[in-house]
Structures are given as structure tokens and as C-alpha cells.
Write a structure and sequence with these properties.
about 30% strand; Transcription Regulator spoIIAA; globular; about 160 residues; 6-stranded mixed β-sheet; alpha/beta; 5 helices
Length: about 160
């Protein structure tokens, strides 16, 4: 979902109009990876999250959650700017994901974004990973650690009395 607004704003509309200005740009794209629990969706956010692009991010997050993945990872490595409301939306999405039994993490946040999160949302932060690769590998590793070990002898050798 990539949204670039190129629409001209009529002179009669005020500055508080719902039509965003033409310089707003935000792009959201998803990738899917298989996992034991089902699916990992990676939502890649690039561009700027501000008041005019916040609805696009909200829609992308909602759409990703509506797919009911086992895990949602939001990749912020290409996000150039994020307003306070955008940071709050990303932090609050953790609760929506948890309500739907979906694990949620953000990855690749730039240092200044990560610092703002720590200062203002310290007690309510989502899981944060350095990169999307690290997040996906951590999910796969956790699944391997928690998977039940197969009973190799039972599956390899028939037991007397079994048919």
C-alpha cells in the first residue's frame, strides 16, 4: 500500500481540511514468512508518518492484523520521520495485537525514534528488535525452543501389539 498524494487543494478549503497536502508521502508494504504457529507478517514502513499520513499507517496496521498472523513485525528502518501520534499508534498497536493473540514487535527504529519512545512510552513499549532479520530469526528460534521433541524411538520402531 503506497500512497502519494498529488491532489491539488482547492483555495476554498481551510487548513484544517481532511484533504492532505500534496507533499505527504508514506509507503507501507507487507511480506509474509511461514512459521510453526502460522504466519509472520512484516509491515515495512517507509517515508514520513505525520498527521496527514497517519491514517495510511493505521489502515496498513489494521489490514495486517486483519490477516490474523501469528506474529506481526513492523519494520521502521526506512521511516524518515514519525510524529508523536505515529509513535503512540505504533505503541498502542501492541495492545490490539495482544487482544487478538498476535505477537507484535517493531524493528529497525532509528536511534532518535527509539530514544523518544524510551522517554515517553517507557512502560508501554512493544518488543523492539535491531532489524527485521533479527526479529524473524528470534521468532523462529523461539518456536524451535518451545516445540515438543519427537519421540524418535516410537516413530522409528513399531511397538509390539501396534498394527
Amino acid at each position: 500500500m503506497c500512497r502519494q498524494i498529488t491532489q491539488e487543494i482547492p483555495q476554498s478549503l481551510s487548513a484544517t481540511s481532511a484533504i492532505p497536502p500534496p507533499w505527504c508521502l508514506l509507503c507501507c508494504a507487507t511480506e509474509s514468512f511461514p512459521c510453526v504457529a502460522g504466519e509472520i507478517i512484516v509491515l515495512r514502513v517507509s517515508g514520513e508518518v505525520d498527521l496527514c499520513t497517519l491514517p495510511t499507517l493505521q489502515t496498513a496496521l489494521d489490514h495486517s492484523l486483519d490477516q490474523h498472523p501469528a506474529h506481526l513485525v513492523v519494520d521502521l528502518a526506512q521511516m524518515a520521520f514519525c510524529s508523536g501520534r505515529g509513535l503512540d499508534l505504533l505503541a498502542q498497536t501492541r495492545h490490539t495485537a495482544a487482544d487478538n493473540a498476535i505477537s507484535y514487535a517493531v524493528s529497525g527504529a532509528l536511534p532518535h525514534i527509539d530514544r523518544l519512545w524510551t522517554l515517553f512510552w517507557d512502560s508501554d513499549l512493544p518488543v523492539r528488535c535491531r532489524s527485521t532479520t533479527a526479529a524473524v530469526i528470534a521468532i523462529w528460534a523461539a518456536e524451535v525452543r518451545t516445540a515438543p521433541e519427537p519421540d524418535l524411538l516410537r516413530t522409528a520402531l513399531p511397538v509390539a501389539g501396534d498394527t
